[in-house]
Target: Ribonuclease PH
Amino acid sequence: MRADGRAVDQLREVSITRGWSSHAEGSALIEFGNTRVLCTASFESDVPRWMRGQGTGWVTAEYAMLPRATNTRNSRESVKGKIGGRTHEISRLIGRSLRAVVDMKALGENMITLDCDVLQADGGTRTAAITGAFVALADAVEWARGERHIAKRAEVLTDSVAAVSVGVLPDGTAVLDLPYTEDSTAGTDMNVVVTGSGDFVEVQGTAEGTPFSRDQLNELLDLALTGTDQLAQIQRGALSS
Amino acid sequence: MRADGRAVDQLREVSITRGWSSHAEGSALIEFGNTRVLCTASFESDVPRWMRGQGTGWVTAEYAMLPRATNTRNSRESVKGKIGGRTHEISRLIGRSLRAVVDMKALGENMITLDCDVLQADGGTRTAAITGAFVALADAVEWARGERHIAKRAEVLTDSVAAVSVGVLPDGTAVLDLPYTEDSTAGTDMNVVVTGSGDFVEVQGTAEGTPFSRDQLNELLDLALTGTDQLAQIQRGALSS
Amino acid sequence: MRADGRAVDQLREVSITRGWSSHAEGSALIEFGNTRVLCTASFESDVPRWMRGQGTGWVTAEYAMLPRATNTRNSRESVKGKIGGRTHEISRLIGRSLRAVVDMKALGENMITLDCDVLQADGGTRTAAITGAFVALADAVEWARGERHIAKRAEVLTDSVAAVSVGVLPDGTAVLDLPYTEDSTAGTDMNVVVTGSGDFVEVQGTAEGTPFSRDQLNELLDLALTGTDQLAQIQRGALSS
Amino acid sequence: MRADGRAVDQLREVSITRGWSSHAEGSALIEFGNTRVLCTASFESDVPRWMRGQGTGWVTAEYAMLPRATNTRNSRESVKGKIGGRTHEISRLIGRSLRAVVDMKALGENMITLDCDVLQADGGTRTAAITGAFVALADAVEWARGERHIAKRAEVLTDSVAAVSVGVLPDGTAVLDLPYTEDSTAGTDMNVVVTGSGDFVEVQGTAEGTPFSRDQLNELLDLALTGTDQLAQIQRGALSS
Amino acid sequence: MRADGRAVDQLREVSITRGWSSHAEGSALIEFGNTRVLCTASFESDVPRWMRGQGTGWVTAEYAMLPRATNTRNSRESVKGKIGGRTHEISRLIGRSLRAVVDMKALGENMITLDCDVLQADGGTRTAAITGAFVALADAVEWARGERHIAKRAEVLTDSVAAVSVGVLPDGTAVLDLPYTEDSTAGTDMNVVVTGSGDFVEVQGTAEGTPFSRDQLNELLDLALTGTDQLAQIQRGALSS
Amino acid sequence: MRADGRAVDQLREVSITRGWSSHAEGSALIEFGNTRVLCTASFESDVPRWMRGQGTGWVTAEYAMLPRATNTRNSRESVKGKIGGRTHEISRLIGRSLRAVVDMKALGENMITLDCDVLQADGGTRTAAITGAFVALADAVEWARGERHIAKRAEVLTDSVAAVSVGVLPDGTAVLDLPYTEDSTAGTDMNVVVTGSGDFVEVQGTAEGTPFSRDQLNELLDLALTGTDQLAQIQRGALSS
Model:
């Protein structure tokens, strides 16, 4: 039993509020327990100059945290005048993860920017961001289809994509979807990004303390796939409502 | 009659959700129609080095907008690597406005930082931010009192403070609380910050087009005071619930 | 009687030296007592790319202080690598104030940049900058007319504009044109920008300490209009010499 | 057979030149084929202020590329004024990888900074950097022991650590240690950091194109372990010479 | 005969206005023809942290140009967010030149910062800056002596220092003190910094076009010494008035 | 006799390894004793936008040091977010020195960027960089001729160029080619850039302590010419091998 009463292979309560923003072409407020991330998708019917004329589009992402999303206040990166390594790394991960399920030819010379702003953080913000951003992306693609920026039958999204964290607690137990209290003490921490059909887009495992064995790696991957399978269903539910 | 059906001296629907953030010492999600600002107050029982030993505290504020808070996406200031003039100006205005109702001696050597992040913008974001930040500030002061960082009977807040925008539409009508569509065409634009007892903390009037006469100035001030009086009541209501 | 012997409604000695710079299309060294600001107007027969083809021009301003313009040395903003909030705010105020008296259609696709560099500061630098910048602007417009960048009869300037500070001293006296010693102790501080015909372009009043009443606001506005009326005459004198 | 004639599970020629720098406390020029990385370890008998008094040390890393390490010249990050996301990400990876084999208590209040500068790039620069940095680190630890900054018998290094890249070529073949030509077309790309005793420190797999299945993941991990096992031997050889 | 009627070995009209700034501990507005540089010396009775406890002082300099000091407007370095190479280079040259005539032991643990701001540029701004800064420095030293920050008889200044430019015109003529029109076409350009007793502090000669021979170098040095000799007299005159 | 056993007019051992980089169009690893600088020349068949259409090319240079090129580690300029004054100054010096021997018309609308990265520093890094960069430049010009970016018979290089440092030791001895230990104590320090035919491109002499006399200046120039004459031979040797 975990501190919050969950089983080792149980997700926190996940909720997705579509259309939270009235301005964005697609948006979703996603919550994994106390973690809340606002994901917006901004559609632009153009691509960066260096990509023009190739007939393909682009999808990019930016991740950020409000200064008081965490337990103690962090300085704003705009005030510091530069973006930290962690922010860069997560922004790049989100962008790569979503591009893995987008057919850039079908998207055409259009660009979609996903902004994932953490309003409240309690572990798993990057995986919540990927999971919510997919919903915002799907809505932006539909919006663009309605506006005829994208062909009526273009299969822009080749699959869905969701992500979850898994880790090893100090007592050696492998667990799914870690809140901050578990995450901060976990020996091994892994983020896994998986498509709706169960293939891997990204596997990032890090030994914070003791290196981990191949058996532990396999146990963690099993747990992760359990989680992403449920998240894919929740995404489908949200998008069909 | 205005485009959204309001009378010239009528506020948009205003709602204040206290305690929206589970981490901050005080927080409020304030909505003026479609404008939504998340205000958090972070309490620190210390002051910047240059203020130590004087027995007085400090209150400061930072204002920012999410990139897709507006109708078209704006680049993040963290990505641009510097904060724009407008952001600086509004952050300074919010800080000054709140300090006007804080007794720094009663606050003691403590610091409160107000973060006002615009989640969705539809005109009047800076005035909504001031109005919401006061609520977050009041809660942070009470929290600090409970934690004994502030003396039990210290009168830290000398009054309440709220703000509203007023402006002159192209047809010459003076109106209260302008949404974006009105604000973007208004000839004169004024932000007025007023205490609960009806005195001015800040008056900022700007002629965007034709300069304005003293009579127009007086008409705008009358309207503004109507608005801030109602906002003070809404604040009291939120804080007493 | 004030510390420097002036009456409450008396300006400091104001002098304007036109053509101080031999390179700029218009220039004025303006002095309000010990405050000295060098204002230059740079004319460019082009506009920023995003404005091209609309047939209208632009006027912008940049304000800065030499590091030892003040009593103790300030670090250069170029060395710090970023411009402070106060500098941004004043630059924006100067630009808005001057644009209020420029007919952008009559200016045509031309751009005028006003640089206001404070060589020595003793209170009221932003209001001196606006007052001096108008003179530099007027000369640059005449220069451009002579060079045929502007049509012979185009009424580019619709009025003159000048600015002055007013404030309330600790003993409650409202005074005009505050030097540093008064400004640093004033309870309420107001900068008022007024056209030659007496209408307001900008009213910025701030309670540094106790909030101010509507009566005090009116008293300050009366004083300010006395000052800007005299400044408009001094500008006319300088431009006709 | 691969373009350069290697078997799928064969490393490029790897060479390690210890002591390449006459100034650093430890240094190694490591070559994986045409990839050349200069790794230096700088020892400082102090830790950052916030770590003092805890009796533990710190190991950190910075990765960079010379502008013409690559086929076309890249702008210097110092000239651009900020560090890119990729650089940050790799620097953080190298630091984490080395810290996984350091006992911070045994290191005491000392800090070692590893600089990994890519002099010439041909794929696998981050994995070469980790592998070379371990050798530089080991020499710096021995230097510090000789200088009595570290206790004579302190077991600072708990294991060795090495890294290698693996990937899936467009024809589906999984290969070890990809040069640039393979890397730029690979569908899946994985960097694996492994201790001398064969446990994982970091697994980072990314689908650049088609997502990968669990079987492919296992095949890649098998290949990687073959490579890191050989690299651990090469490190031992270098350190014992 | 030169374009402005001067002989090849003749300086432009040089004037030095001491005490131009009422705030600085020493100040001089120096003019070499149309070149005008405001030099202020700011005295601080402290040194940077890393110099404390050694009993010696420091002298440093910062050079800058107002945006419209030149014929066409230059962007402000504060707006660009970084200082250009030329500015850095000249600031460093001024600092070195003045330190060459300061006995740091006699100065004690005090620091003097020289700000040289070019108000109007017409060639030779760096040499005018050095020559004027010496006067401001001398006044700041006397001020500090009066305030007892420096011992009554301490010989802080070991000599005077002045600087001048020399160059070779396209027709091969070597000339002294080049205004902008000559400077911009000169083949070789040299700045020479010389003490009051005629020794060299700095010699910086650059072939802009054809490399120069040793004979030309000697001819230029002869001219330069003529100029700095006169400048030393002008400095003495200014300081004794 | 000097600390390292050399005569006062003797260079350290100089070696030039051409083609050290397999990517650059020209490259040389130059060593002056323990000073090692990697010089690469990057050719681009284009010029910056503002130079297009004039039929002339451009040559520019960037100098940098690896963080542990020196005895104690220096922070990276990319991490600090700005380039220091010394780096700017040396980059500009290298660029000017090489441009002095390039016929920009003959180069045509092409650009060559020289990167001089100090891998290990022991005095004289800027002069080694100039000397090595000339070799890289010569190879890049030949490469471009082979690729027909430059006309077959165009005389792009009008001469060779090399540089050396000279200085005065504390005992008054003038010496050639100072390593760090001599350089850090030298009273006068001079860098001299000379063409293959013996004319000066740049003379930069600085009194670090006592100002120097004209006789000393002449003695130093004699020594420098001895050194650059030998360096020109070494360059010819390298380029003909």
About this structure: Chain E is about 30% helix and 30% strand. Chain E touches chain D through two residues (CB under 8 Å).
